[in-house]
Amino acid sequence: MNDILRIDGLCFGFGWGFGGRKKPVLDGLDLHVQDGAVTVLLGANGAGKSTLLRVLLGLLRPQAGTVRLFGQDPLRSHKAVLQRIGYVPDVPDVYPWMTARDLFGFLRPHYPRWNQARCGELCERLEVPLSTKTKSMSRGQGMKMMLVAALAPEPELLLLDEPFAGLDPLVREQVLLGVVEALREGERTVLCATHELEIASRIADRVAVLERGRIVRHGSLAEVLGEEEPAQVPSGLHRVLAEVRREGVTA
Amino acid sequence: MSLALCHCGKEWRAQRGVLVAYSLLVFVSLCLGFLLVPEHWWQTQGKRALSLSWFVAAGVIGVFGFVAPQLVRAEFAAKEDQFVRRLPGALGPSFTGKVLFLLLATLALPLVGLLWGELFLQAIGQTWSDLFTSRYDGEVVFEWPWPVQLCCALLLLAPWVWAIGTWLPGGRMAVGGTLLLVLVLGLCVVAVLRQSPHIEKHLAWEPWLWAIVPLGVAIAGVSWVRGRRGGGATRSARLGVAAMAVGLAPPALWLGHTAWDYRHPDLQRLATLSVQGITPDARYVLAGGAAHAPWCHVHLRIDLQTGEAVQLTGIDRAFTGEWMPVHPWALLGQQRWWRSYGDRGSAASVLDLATGDSTPLDCNPVTLAPRLTAGLRTEVLAELRATTKLRAPGDWRAWFEDDELCFEEAGGAVSRMTWPKAGRQCYFPAGHGFRALGDPGYLFDLTNRRLLPLPGQLEGAFFVRGELLACEKGRWQQSSAGSAPRTCEPLTNARVLGLFDDDRLLCAHTAAKARPARLFLVRPADGAVTELAIAESVSFQSVGAVAPMHEQGSVLARDPRGRIWLRCSDSRREIFLLVDAGTLTTSIHVPRAASARSGYQLLAWPGPDTVLLQHEAEILRVDVETGALTVLFPKRD
Predict the structure, then answer these.
(1) Cis peptide bond N-terminal to B214, omega within 30
(2) Are B481 and B451 in contact (CB under 8 A)?
């Protein structure tokens, strides 16, 4: 399989850089993500997971190193790269006056592959309130709306920035199911940042541990946890699907 | 374009609540305010249009204070402004949409204000017809109230509010930031203007006004589209400031170039020239000049033989030919040594106009009186004696040295008289004597060496061999020491031009309706009158004697051939009338085409038949006999 994402020697820091030094957040980070894999980026709070995703979205400019998404620089080929990416932030980042209907109508002309039917189907399945303003939505409703907004363009790469954090268990499972169903239908590549090991254990094909600005471990969950992955254990995605179906959690 | 329209619609959705609330609040408040204040404050003629203009101004303030800052502020949500930045290729269409929305709001809000104000005035039975007046010829003249002018300035700055909003964290305080930037830029401009007085009178700054809005939009574009890609407010500020520097560079260079031109003009292309002095050999000229008419002069030294000019100082220095506390009232003079000084007499130096050398000069720190070196003092005193225009009868010279009045005596002897008046004083030659201004003023008779109080408001005074002729309220009275004053009838209604010789005054009657112009000599001793024949074509309404560098002395100045030069002018032209002192004949000299009237200054008579004249920014040499005219300065290429 091809690397859909290649990061080599990525450095990024915040601050004014007094005396030429900025507070480093990412310090020589290397990460390769293969097409079709679900990679969970594990790291403690403040490890730089969100920063890494913002670099991938072209929101931040690397101080050193290279970032290639689909073989392209997300800063130089901003439009071409982002049209193939779906992004779910940790909190809804859309305008508070927008309703879900406003949001989808606004996003639609930005994505040539926007699938309106799929958008409607997801809204129905996840029970997204279409006429409620974002500022009036609960966190769960907001995250479901963001998930629909990320999936409706049929992205090739889905970036998830702790989308499950702070959700009540029922909504959490709904969101998780939405993610998983979407993956199953499109066999998309996922990079999910989280600090929860449980999430990793449920969905990850591969796990990358981010610490002190670098990927210190990268492999299957078992490899990362220091144990051999049993051959009979299904991959994370299929395991979650099975669990969800077994527990009867439906949208 | 559909994406841009999409973003424009998004702006409307984001701002419509604030704008509607603002409009209702402000316009209703204005209506209530006008209803509550006394009627004579605004319902009188000329004030109704002003009241209407406040409604328009409220609309403009809405654009400046709400719409423009919100173009950035409204992008900020839970995760700052990352939403629009993470959309594929959205920054460009977002910028276009914002430009479109700002344009629409700029048109709509003031128009809404106008409509609201008009409806309000209609509702209370008033009109705003005093916004314009119809002239007698049918032309309509608009009289824009001052709030309208304020509105125009604010609208010019609206894109800048947007641009600066992108530089600030959260897009906050964009209006304050813009006003601060305008203040800083304004201070820089004012600093240049203050350093160069009147420079603004030749600054064609109006075309730059048209660049303010496009430049603001361009800076906003760079700050938003380029700055927000891979960065936040800091990157926007960095790129925006760079774009602003590039955008402001042309007007800054233009202003800087103009300021440089102000202080370092092309000396061969001066617009104004003011000759201040000339060396006794009439070769070198000390002059002030400027590239444009209202600007302050820089000083230059001109070599009349070659036409070359050298800039001596900038605009902040002055030159004077005064060396003694008592000196003639003349800023111009034929002399070699000149004193230069800066602000409040600082950094004085002495200029040798003949060589162009300048050397520092020590001055008394309190009185600022120059302390001359022995060698220089000798030179200066010799020049003072040689160039003095004060004469006692018999062509005996008189001049001042420090606080002494010196008289030339037979055999080269010099008698001295301690001058009784203290302090710096100026005098005007008045025949065989001089008249000093001051409070109180006084007269000095060089014949009898006596000091007289200046009686009342004298319109003119001349000493002729010790006899004083004074004009008060149009009547000339003559008196000598110890005698009662008597009327000098021949001088009635005459203009006395000066002392023709030791005994006679040259006088004139200007042309009037039933009276031709007349020149005549009057001898006060016996009242004898001698008429001077002048051509019938000479009909002057103004006449005055001229002398090189305005240096009139006791006796009227003569050229090397003994002719007295009179400047005569009427409504059509200006000529020189030359009076031959030997034959008492007159001749006319017109230095240039009659259309080039006025403005001639006589600089020197360098030869028997040549005269140096300054006309506008040129120095001319004219052959009096042939009329041939040569431009000595500026150089002809």
Answers:
(1) no
(2) no
Mind listing the pLDDT tens digit for each residue in B558-574?
A: 999 999 999 888 777 78
**Closest residue by Cα to residue B394 from B413, B411, B410:** B410
Task: Quote the minimal CA–CA distance from B241 to chain A in Å.
Answer: 17
pLDDT band at residue A231 under the 50/70/90 scheme = very low
| A78 vs B6, B79, B89: nearest CB | B89
Alpha-carbon distance of B565 to B384, in angstroms, equals 24
A-B CB pairs within 8 A amount to: 71
Distance CA B618, CA B330 (A): 22
Q: Which residue has the higher pLDDT, B633 or A229?
A: B633
* Contact at CB, B85 and A59, closer than 8 angstroms: yes
Alpha-helix residue ranges (DSSP H) falling in B264-373: none
Q: pLDDT, tens digit, for every residue of B320-376?
A: 888 887 777 765 578 899 999 888 777 889 999 999 999 998 888 777 788 888 898
Rounded Cα gap, residues B196 and B315, in angstroms = 8
Give A-chain residues touching B85 at CB under 8 angstroms. Answer: 57-59
DSSP H or E segment with residue B407 = strand B404-408
Per-residue confidence band for B393, with pLDDT thresholds at 50, 70 and 90: very high
Relative orientation angle of helices B2-36 and B48-62, to the nearest 10 degrees: 140
pLDDT at residue B453, rounded to an integer: 85
Closest among A215, A16, A161 to B235, alpha carbons compared: A16
- Interface residue A113 vs chain B (CB under 8 A): no
Band of residue A250 on the pLDDT scale cut at 50, 70, 90 = very low
Proportion of chain A above pLDDT 70, given as a percent: 85
B341-350: long-range contacts (C-beta < 8 A, 24 or more apart)? Answer: B341/B317, B341/B368, B342/B316, B342/B317, B343/B316, B350/B376
**Full DSSP string of B82-130:** HHHHHSTT-HHHHHHHHHHHHHHHHHHHHHHHHHHHHHHHHHTT---GG
The DSSP output letter for B390 is E
- The CA distance from B637 to B635, in Å, is 6
Residue B394, sorted as left (phi over 0), alpha (psi -120 to 50) or beta, turns out to be left
Q: Is A207 on the interface with B (CB under 8 A)?
A: no
Of B310, B274, B272, B315, give the one whose Cα is nearest residue B291.
B272
Q: Which residues of B413-429 are buried (b: 16+ CB within 10 A; e: fewer)?
A: eeeeeebeeeeebebeb
What value does the mean pLDDT take over residues A221-239? 57
Picking from B14, B88, B230, the nearest residue to A110 by CB comes out as: B88
Is residue B366 within 8 Å of B342, Cβ to Cβ? Answer: no
Whether omega for the bond prior to residue B634 falls within 30 degrees of 0, making it cis, is yes
pLDDT band at A187 (very low <50, low <70, confident <90, very high): low
CA B410 to CA B471: how far, in whole Å?
A: 34
Please write the tens of the pLDDT for every residue from A137-174: 998 899 999 999 999 999 999 999 988 887 888 888 88
Scan for tokens 């030791």, then name that residue.
Answer: B502
Query: Which residues are bridge partners to B390 per DSSP?
Result: B398
Q: Which residues of A touch B88 (CB under 8 A)?
A: 78-83, 110-111
Residue A233: pLDDT band with limits 50, 70, 90 = very low
Helices A100-107, A139-151: crossing angle, 10 deg rounding: 20
Helix (H, G, I), strand (E, B) or coil at A70: coil
Interchain contact, B87 vs A78, CB within 8 Å: no
d(CA B18, CA B14): 8
Closest alpha carbon to B334 in B401, B400, B269, B278: B278
pLDDT at A242: 52
Do residues A28 and A63 lie in contact, with contact meaning Cβ atoms separated by under 8 Å? Answer: no
B103-112, B138-147, B536-545: range with lowest mean pLDDT = B138-147
